Amino acid sequence: MPRQSLAPGEIGTISHQVKLEGKWVSEEEAKAQGVKPSSLPRRARARAKLSNGRDVRFMVSGPTKGAIEHRIKLKMREAEEKLAREIEEQKSRKTLGEYAQRYLDGIDSSVLERERSSATRTKYRYTAKTYALNSPLADIKIDDITRNQLTDELLRLGREGLTGERKHVLTIWRKLWEIADGDVTGTPPPSPLDRLRLPRDGAVSKNPQVVHKDRAYTDEEIASLMDTVTNDPRAQRSNSSDAIMLLLQTGCRIGEIAGLRWQDVDLESDPPAIHLRGQIHTEDGERRWEPRLKSKLSYRSIPLTKQACEVFRRRLSVRMKPGATDAEMEFVFATARTGNIPDPRALTRSIKRALSDAGHGEMSSHTFRRIVERRLEESGLSRMDRESLMGHTIQVAERHYSTHGVPERALAALQSKIKTDNKRTIDEISRKNQAEKSPKNTV
Question: Could you say which DSSP state residue 95 is in?
């Protein structure tokens, strides 16, 4: 028998049964055996379709046909009312705190942000817990939050000296609204985050005495710095001098340099290159190398200048010496007393110490990344080539830009700006320093 087709809100054919000798049978079968159905226990089954197209089934018992059919209509009405409540709950989304908890649960279960580095996940987890789950807005439904309330919250963080946290808070808010949009059937309502910008008023520095400016350094300043660092015995012992030179020659992130393995270095190719495939992550106090970088665009190959090749050959001599540790055999930059896996934090601290000893305490490892990008831009390398080399802009993937030939063009740009100008200036300053150190002739 073909299945009955029902329209939304319609109840199908009701199938009545009676209980005869312990078995449920149809009314026709009871009459065939000479028994009046009205004297037997009675039940009925029915299929219906709700207003949203969902199929439901009812099983109802009662003394008569009329009573059973009335109860089925009541069941249908209850089902429609329950459906209306569910739709209304979907339209009225949950509080900001509830979505923050869902986001934290997603990070802990590796469902969300699993492509991020462990440091980024830790920062996002801390921001969501501190400034969303435990914020003054946590108990407000996300649809009731206005742009003015979000702006006031950012201003409050600025007044409390948490100016640096505000950009992370804004990032987490956008992620929570994305989760909330998934709870809406169809087009979600407008977000108060649209056109929301970080406010500039009411912000105070947590440490107003220390101001770090992202300024452009001249070739002379960089040359003087590199001459000081490369001749610093302490920086040489800690490997920070070689690490700083690689940062300046490649534009890599410090995590990418710290996790660079020898198998990712190819000095025999034309041009020589390094292939960034992963880095060292620390979770629950345990360090391990994983094939995971900051983003998908961070997986890239970077051509090596002559100075960069010299650094790797110098590091190779450490690897080939008798008694080299397992870490020195596998990684380019092994750190002391950290076992078989280097500690990126130890390398970062040694670089910071070397820069401070050289008179540039305002610098960090990321300063050299910005220096390289500026110099690539000055050399005339196109924006797409720069973004492909640096691996930090999603626009490269969105525009489907072909990176064919980028290593050759990038190497030419690196050589022209960093090798020619900077190397000449380094040589000049080195000769000047040597002349100042040599004893003067007396008459």
Answer: B
